[in-house]
Amino acid sequence: MTAPQTSPAWQAHWLAETIRLREEHWGPLEDADAIRQARNGPDTLQGRIVQRAHLLGHREGLTELIVRWRQGAFISLLLLLLIAVLAGVGSAAGALGDGARPVNVLWAIGALLGLHLLTFVLWLASFLVRPSHATGLGSLWLWATRKFARGPDAALVPQALMNLLARAGALRWLFGGISHSLWLAGLLAALVTLLVMLSTASYRFVWATTLLQPDTFVFLTRALGWLPAQFGFAIPAEEIVRASDNSQPLPAIAQAQWSVWLIGVIAIYGVLPRLLVWLLCLIQTVRAQRRLQIDPALPGYAALRDRLLPVVQSSGIDRPVDPLHQPHVNAGRLIDQGALDQLNNQPLLVGLELPGDLAWPPTDLPDGVYDGGNLDSRQQRNRLLDALALATTPRLLIACDARQTPDRGTLGLIAALADKAGQARVWLCAGSDPAPSPERLQTWQDRLTAAGMAATDILRDADQPLRWLETGHG
Predict the structure, then answer these.
(1) 77-86, 90-99, 347-356, 379-388 — which one is most confidently predicted on average?
(2) What residues contact residue 145 under an 8 Å CB cut-off, 6+ apart?
(3) Sequence-distant (≥ 6) Cβ neighbours of residue 354 within 8 angstroms
(4) CA-angle at 148, arms to 143 and 153, nearest 5°
(5) How far apart are CA 474 and CA 251, in angstroms?
(6) How many other C-beta atoms can be found within 10 angstroms of the C-beta atom of residue 154?
(7) Buried b / exposed e across 335-373, counting CB within 10 Å, b at 16+?
(8) What gap in Å lies between CA 185 and CA 191, rounded to an integer?
(9) Residue 8: pLDDT band with limits 50, 70, 90
(10) Res. 445: pLDDT tops 80
(11) What's the DSSP call for residue 268?
(12) Residue 23: exposed, middle, or buried by beta-carbon count in 10 A (0-12, 13-18, 19+)?
């Protein structure tokens, strides 16, 4: 079985934070095998925490859950962008109307830029406080994304992302970038709609007031048009502004000047600032992602330090013992360090606590098959798992005594061994005195299949398991 592909750094940290939150809520995961492999990996605590999360995430399905959540986030963002574009088109069409009535230039600017300017100022004011959650349209995107996520752990994925972004200082920038991208899409859609409508229909622009003097509108027109004029958008002449009081008809050149002025105001005061801050948010988010680090002091990570970075490897001996209490281990054949090179890319046969009446190793063991021994002790099991964490084997055959009842420990060891081989099968050794009962054989069959093993991977003596181990067929 193959391990998942490694993820970019920020995704790996996201997965590690998701697992940390899950263990906080539901208790520690069984991770002996993941710890063993992580200790054979990176030299730093942070690297080993990420490696452990990588292995557990693949096993527990959290990696796939994050992938599905990201897909839902992308879909929800596309839907919100579509809504923003439609809203921009509607606001531009509503500001100009059907052409039957004159267009009040101030009302048109207010309809197109009023809410944009208000939210833009509020975003700038948000820098006065420390962000603790998503705001604005970013929070709308997060809410929509959660609607696509299902399952008991689905809520942990966005929470882990929020925690990660907050610690890296990227929370404001990521959600700000999403919010500005939606506004930018709406403003661009409004600008394009203005260009199309003004190019294909005739509109009359006027200003109307009861209290203000014409000089006020001349000043406002020039003040608002000064910055767009620096980018080539012309300002209507003073006499045209004074004459646009809806008291007299104006020539087409006057309406064209108002059109260019309106487009310039929308482009420079609407689209341009949103584009600039969107680029700023994008750059800051990328920079914050590069600063992501595992904080070993966080609850959940601190408890892993001694297991992932043991200060010393204990031998289990603290004082000499007398001969009467000296333990005697009936150790079978251990895999030593020099055997790792032999194990690499070689079929492997191991026995699980086989009794003495079953001959081991089999007398007809084919050449080219490595004998991993009869695993009778924890030391042997750990030694073999360590070897398989560093080496590879294309085929693994696990021999079990079919007369014994399979317990959870045996099934867990079979799963751990099978996870490190290209193909793995279980050989139910029958023996002869006494022979296993049909009920016991069926129990093995049921429990192995319940653990995820295919029925074709459970072999009996008559299935010639050693032939499969040697050739890969049979």
Answers:
(1) 77-86
(2) 69, 72, 73, 76, 77, 158
(3) 360, 374, 399, 400, 401, 429
(4) 90
(5) 92
(6) 15
(7) beeebeeebeebbbbbbbbbeeebebbbeeeeeebbbbb
(8) 10
(9) low
(10) yes
(11) I
(12) middle
Structure tokens at 390: 């560093």
Contact yes or no for 244/250 (Cβ under 8 A): yes
Which residue do the tokens 């000296």 mark? 326
> Do 388 and 415 meet the contact criterion of CB atoms below 8 Å apart?
no
How would DSSP label each residue in 226-248? HHHHHTTPPPPPHHHHHH-SSSS
Q: Which amino acid, residue 347? A: P
Residue type, 135: T
Residue 312 is which amino acid? Answer: V
Rounded CA gap, 449 and 440, in Å? 14
* Mutual angle of helices 45-60 and 9-26, in 10-degree steps: 70
Which region among 260-264, 372-376, 382-386, 470-474 has the lowest average model confidence (pLDDT)?
470-474
Distance CA 205, CA 194 (A): 14
Given the structure tokens 């008809």, which residue do they identify? 249
Is residue 393 within a helix (H) or strand (E), and if so which, with residue range? Answer: strand 393-401
Which residue in the block uniquely carries the two structure tokens 């200082």? 169
pLDDT at residue 205 above 80?
Answer: yes
Q: Give the CA count within 13 Å in the CB-facing half-sphere of 52.
A: 30
* Residue in the structure block whose two tokens are 């054989």: 441
User: Residue 423: phi, psi to the nearest 5?
Assistant: -135, 145
| Residue indicated by tokens 């006020």 | 216
Length, in residues, of the chain: 474
- Extract the tokens encoding 470: 């040697």
